[in-house]
């Protein structure tokens, strides 16, 4: 028996479309192992019972055989694909003809009799139905559906989610827009706009509209193990497990009287923005509350903050929730990626931060340093310092102890606030829970750790999270040595940015020491946001003269009633 015959495949969907997919699977000697549906009507497919899945997928087993979404509706197929973090398989019926240099995305199914000519690119979760003819150099994007007997001539582009009706013909070099519909039997001679519907020979537009997207805001708890696991899954699936938003990070800053929550905004059922926050009682009564985000880089985390509608919709619906739930004020710490835009409160330029672009090679990176950094590095070399960087699962208890000892010595020397004296257990918890997002860099003098940095890795950006240097070894310049070596590692690993943060205040000594590594890069601004939702109650609680959002100054303690 051929090895491919041993592959087991799961189906999501139990309607008529699933029967056709089962036939395509059988033609390849694939084995259908399980079938799922949120509303199974047929009961049995291929002698397998259909398992009903809850709307929130809580009873779905994410681990297991690869899957095909056996649903013809493009929008439903996209929604499920964005919810289920599983492996998807591509299936090409043995009685189809596919050119060898065709590229096909995961989850796509090509049915019997379909012909795919050279240089065609087919996206994910596409349906190429029975007898369809796709000529050379076509581009068919994700979630499109090419119906039976359709003819796509050369260099046609079918955008995401478009539906091409049976027996239609698209002439060469025509583009069919996103989520557009081409009626059965149509002959399309010119480009079709996004979301439009065309019919006839030659085709004409019968509906043309701009998509009005449906947004919905959820307010979720982070209390039970189920709550926490759901949040972790969302963060990992949609936001590359950004450490500043991980549960282990958030939990550290939660006070006993706080309630940890998060906002989740969906667009057409798909998560597009998330923001964790603490909701706090203002008085002994539960009636009045305020909201604050954690220390560090926070605020709404978007799939695409440049999408002009996401942030306005997010704040619009958040503000509505505030009004309904007696929230008096809000204090937000934003990240450095522009998520402060469209904020509905008062923005304050709180601190300049250093975010440097990592060069393509070590020579260019070396030239970009200030003269002082280069001289200090050469001096460190004369002291025979060495460097090691420990990533992910290579970070052991011993390495964390080395880091923690140097870090605590540094905090004590600088008379840091109590909140910055993180325990060794805290580091163990956050690192071991998110191993792929951390590295520890260490410079050694005669096998003694003399300078350390805990690095957060978020996609291709490094964040200098916490670190320190032993005072006894200052003359060896171990910190400059450490950061130059970190940047060598970053160049090798194709990282794009290194965020060093700022000082205690703008242009202080700490800021200047960091700026020497990226003297020519433009600084970014760390913004904080202040918002008064109920001015009357805010003034009453603060025992001050009436105020407006516009009167909130950067130097004022906010919210004023918590200073009393």
Brief overview:
The protein has about 575 residues and is of the alpha/beta class. It contains 12 helices and 37 strands.
How does this structure look, described?
By secondary structure, the chain is α/β, with parallel strands linked by helices. Strands 25, 26, 27, 28, 29, 30, 31, 32, 33, 34, 35, 36 and 37 form a 13-stranded mixed beta sheet that branches. The protein has an 8-stranded mixed beta sheet with strand order 6-9-12-15-18-21-23-24, with helices on one face. A 6-stranded parallel beta sheet has the order 7-10-13-16-19-22, with no helix packed on it.
Question: Could you outline the blueprint of secondary structure elements for this entry?
Answer:
Layout: E1 8-12, H1 16-27, E2 31-37, E3 44-45, E4 48-52, E5 67-69, H2 74-83, E6 91-92, E7 97-98, E8 103-104, E9 109-110, E10 115-116, E11 121-122, E12 127-128, E13 133-134, E14 139-140, E15 145-146, E16 151-152, E17 157-158, E18 163-164, E19 169-170, E20 175-176, E21 181-182, E22 187-188, E23 197-199, E24 204-207, E25 215-221, H3 225-238, H4 247-252, E26 259-267, E27 270-281, E28 289-292, E29 301-302, H5 310-324, E30 327-333, E31 346-357, H6 362-368, H7 371-382, E32 386-391, H8 397-413, H9 424-433, E33 438-445, E34 448-458, E35 461-469, H10 478-492, E36 497-501, H11 509-515, E37 524-532, H12 535-542
Parallel strand pairs: 1-2, 1-5, 2-4, 6-9, 7-10, 8-11, 9-12, 10-13, 11-14, 12-15, 13-16, 14-17, 15-18, 16-19, 17-20, 18-21, 19-22, 21-23, 28-30, 35-36
Antiparallel strand pairs: 3-4, 23-24, 25-26, 26-27, 27-28, 27-29, 30-37, 31-36, 31-37, 32-33, 33-34, 34-35
Helix pairs in contact: 7-10
């Amino acid at each position: 028996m051929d090895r491919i015959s041993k592959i087991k495949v799961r189906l999501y969907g139990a309607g008529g479309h699933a029967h056709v997919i089962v036939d395509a699977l059988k033609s390849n000697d694939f084995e259908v192992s399980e079938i799922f549906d949120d509303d199974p009507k047929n009961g049995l497919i291929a002698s397998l019972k259909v398992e009903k899945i809850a709307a929130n997928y809580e009873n779905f087993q994410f681990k297991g055989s690869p899957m095909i979404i056996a649903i013809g509706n493009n929008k439903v197929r996209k929604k499920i694909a964005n919810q289920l973090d599983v492996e998807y398989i591509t299936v090409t019926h043995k009685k189809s003809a596919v050119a060898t240099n065709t590229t096909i995305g995961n989850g796509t199914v090509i049915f019997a009799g379909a012909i795919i000519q050279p240089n065609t690119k087919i996206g994910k979760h596409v349906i190429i139905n029975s007898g369809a003819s796709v000529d050379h150099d076509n581009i068919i994007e994700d979630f499109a559906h090419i119906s039976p007997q359709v003819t796509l001539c050369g260099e046609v582009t079918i955008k995401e989610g478009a539906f091409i009706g049976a027996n239609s013909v698209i002439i060469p070099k025509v583009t069919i827009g996103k989520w557009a519909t081409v009626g059965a039997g149509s002959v399309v001679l010119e480009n079709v706009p996004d979301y439009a519907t065309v019919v006839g020979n030659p085709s004409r537009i019968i509906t043309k509209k701009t998509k009005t997207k449906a947004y919905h805001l959820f307010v979720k708890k982070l209390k039970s193990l189920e709550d926490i696991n759901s949040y972790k899954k969302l963060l990992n699936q949609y936001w590359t497990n950004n450490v500043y938003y991980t549960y282990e990070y958030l939990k550290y800053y939660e006070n006993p009287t706080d309630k940890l929550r998060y906002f989740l905004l969906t667009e057409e059922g798909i998560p597009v923005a998330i923001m964790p926050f603490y909701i706090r009682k203002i008085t002994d009564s539960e009636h009045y509350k305020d909201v604050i985000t954690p220390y560090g880089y926070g605020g709404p985390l978007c799939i695409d903050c440049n999408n002009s509608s996401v942030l306005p919709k997010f704040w619009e619906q958040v503000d509505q929730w505030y009004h309904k739930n007696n929230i008096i004020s809000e204090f937000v710490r934003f990240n450095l990626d522009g998520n402060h835009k469209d904020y509905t409160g008062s923005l304050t330029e709180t601190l300049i931060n250093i975010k440097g672009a990592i060069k393509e090679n070590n020579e260019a990176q070396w030239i970009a340093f200030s003269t002082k950094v280069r001289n200090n590095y050469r001096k460190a070399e004369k002291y025979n310092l060495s460097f090691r960087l420990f990533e992910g699962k290579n970070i052991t208890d011993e390495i964390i102890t080395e880091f923690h000892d140097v870090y605590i010595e540094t905090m004590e020397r600088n008379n840091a606030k109590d909140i910055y004296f993180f325990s060794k257990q805290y580091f163990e918890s956050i690192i071991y829970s998110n191993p792929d997002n951390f590295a520890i860099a260490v410079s050694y003098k005669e096998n003694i750790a003399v300078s350390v940095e805990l690095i957060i890795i978020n996609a291709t950006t490094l964040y200098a999270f916490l670190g320190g240097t032993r005072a006894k070894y200052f003359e060896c310049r171990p910190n400059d040595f450490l950061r130059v070596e970190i940047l060598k590692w970053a160049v090798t690993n194709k990282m794009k940015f290194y965020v060093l943060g700022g000082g205690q205040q703008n242009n202080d000594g700490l800021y200047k020491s960091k700026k020497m590594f990226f003297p020519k890069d433009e600084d970014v601004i760390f913004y904080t946001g202040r918002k008064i939702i109920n001015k009357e109650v805010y003034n009453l609680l603060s025992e001050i003269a009436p105020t407006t959002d516009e009167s909130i100054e950067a130097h004022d303690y906010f919210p004023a009633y918590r200073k009393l």
